[in-house]
Automatic annotation (TrEMBL):
<dbReference type="GO" id="GO:0000118">
    <property type="term" value="C:histone deacetylase complex"/>
</dbReference>
<dbReference type="InterPro" id="IPR013766">
    <property type="entry name" value="Thioredoxin_domain"/>
</dbReference>
<feature type="coiled-coil region">
    <location>
        <begin position="232"/>
        <end position="263"/>
    </location>
</feature>
<dbReference type="InterPro" id="IPR036249">
    <property type="entry name" value="Thioredoxin-like_sf"/>
</dbReference>
<protein>
    <recommendedName>
        <fullName>TPR repeat-containing thioredoxin TDX</fullName>
    </recommendedName>
</protein>
<keyword id="KW-0677">Repeat</keyword>
<feature type="region of interest" description="Disordered">
    <location>
        <begin position="45"/>
        <end position="77"/>
    </location>
</feature>
<keyword id="KW-1015">Disulfide bond</keyword>
<dbReference type="Pfam" id="PF18253">
    <property type="entry name" value="HipN"/>
</dbReference>
<dbReference type="InterPro" id="IPR017937">
    <property type="entry name" value="Thioredoxin_CS"/>
</dbReference>
<feature type="compositionally biased region" description="Basic and acidic residues">
    <location>
        <begin position="47"/>
        <end position="56"/>
    </location>
</feature>
<feature type="domain" description="Thioredoxin">
    <location>
        <begin position="255"/>
        <end position="381"/>
    </location>
</feature>
<keyword id="KW-0175">Coiled coil</keyword>
<dbReference type="GO" id="GO:0016667">
    <property type="term" value="F:oxidoreductase activity, acting on a sulfur group of donors"/>
</dbReference>
<keyword id="KW-0802">TPR repeat</keyword>
<dbReference type="InterPro" id="IPR034649">
    <property type="entry name" value="Hip_N"/>
</dbReference>
<dbReference type="InterPro" id="IPR019734">
    <property type="entry name" value="TPR_rpt"/>
</dbReference>
Length: 381
């Protein structure tokens, strides 16, 4: 025989005492499974107050009595309960399916008349409250004339009265298969679905029945069905909106993370405070792209080993790199990287191109160190 540890028994008793003293504890999200289990045993709890739900009140429409607020985490959104009117809802009738007629049977005039006689007997039985007897007569009528939608729909309506919704739905489906405009078929199926608590489907069927042949009974059932169907629709829209917002936030977070990763990758290709030598167009493009991604100014310095002014300005360029750490300083020897020099149409050295977001914004031609530093300062801000 299973025995619970004495310490666990003590903890359980203490928890029960806490619940008695403060029933709102049961609304704690971490106890959702335990609460659901107790509800399945018929337990009832005081409604959750606004303060217990936290900062986000999921009952903003006034149509909900939430037992747990939605919690967004890495895996799911926990949906709240819906406060529906489930009075008169029954469990499905899991009986063997009722007898259904064989559509391949030839229906003679004699059988049709006999079926009508059985239907009249069924109507008399219904008026006397003898519903099971009425089912027997209608079943006999269906066996005689299995192509009559009205017979199936009528038997379905009796099954509704007997609180046998699945049997009623089978008959309604059969009636609608024969006659897609069977108002009685839609009505029987709608009322059966209402008995099962299938509020949205019930509303659809009953509205269709109303369009075909409205009666007061349909209107009466709709007064209960429609509020529940509307609550479910509002509930669905609310959580679809929450999921969409969650997906958008997730996409935005992923976009930011990707951008940060790209920027980090770009920064790793740029050495702050140093002049990077460029030996070919293949080397230049990634550096300019990295500068563009990080919104940094890039200065492209064209030089040559035989150029005296270039040798004079080179230390100035290096000192500027050490001073302006957020600027990308690139150096190109036109004799070594001829493809780069040709692309930029270099006709004299030294020449300095100022590039931002992939576009040339300024340049300095010649070894004018004051003009060079002035423009570095101007465009690096």
């Amino acid at each position: 025989m299973f025995q619970m540890d004495a310490a666990k028994v003590t903890e359980l008793k203490h928890f029960i005492d806490q619940c008695k003293a403060n029933p709102s504890i049961i609304h704690t999200p971490s106890l959702a499974f335990f609460k659901t289990y107790l509800q399945s045993l018929g337990a009832r709890f005081p409604p959750e107050t606004k303060s217990e739900k936290g900062d986000i009140d999921m009952a903003d429409s006034g149509e909900y009595s939430d037992s747990k607020r939605p919690i967004e985490d890495d895996d799911e959104i926990v949906e709240s309960d819906i406060d529906l009117d489930n009075t008169d809802v029954v469990e499905p009738d899991n009986h063997p399916p009722q007898k259904m007629g064989d559509h391949a049977v030839e229906v003679t005039e004699e059988k049709r008349d006999a079926a009508q006689t059985e239907k009249l007997k069924a109507m008399d039985a219904i008026s006397e409250g003898k519903l099971e007897e009425a089912i027997d007569h209608l079943t006999e009528a269906i066996m005689l004339n299995p192509t009559s939608a009205i017979l199936y729909a009528t038997r379905g309506s009796v099954f509704v009265k007997l609180k046998k919704p699945l049997a009623a739905i089978r008959d309604a489906d059969a009636a609608l298969a024969i006659n897609s405009n069977s108002a009685k078929g839609y009505k029987a199926r709608g009322m059966a679905r209402a008995i099962l608590g299938q509020w949205e489907q019930a509303a659809t069927d009953l509205h269709e029945a109303s369009k075909l042949d409205y009666d007061d009974e349909i209107g009466l059932v709709l007064k209960k069905v429609e509020p529940n169907a509307h609550k479910i629709e509002e509930h669905r829209r609310k959580y679809e909106r929450l999921r969409k917002e969650r997906e958008l936030k997730k996409a935005e977070l992923e976009r930011k993370q990707q951008a940060e990763a790209q920027e980090s990758e770009a920064l790793s290709a740029l050495k702050e405070g140093q002049v990077r030598g460029i030996h070919s167009a293949k080397e230049l493009d990634p550096k300019l792209n990295a500068a563009s991604k990080t919104s940094r100014l890039a200065i492209l310095y064209f030089t040559a080993s035989w150029c005296g002014p270039c040798r004079m300005i080179a230390p100035i360029f290096t000192s500027l790199a050490a001073k302006y750490l957020k600027v990308v300083f690139l150096k190109v020897d036109i004799d070594e990287a001829r493809d780069v020099a040709a692309r930029w149409n270099i006709s004299s050295v030294p020449t300095f191109y100022f590039i931002k977001n992939g576009k040339e914004i300024d340049k300095v031609v010649g070894a004018d160190k004051n003009e060079l530093e002035r423009k570095v300062k101007q465009h690096s801000g």
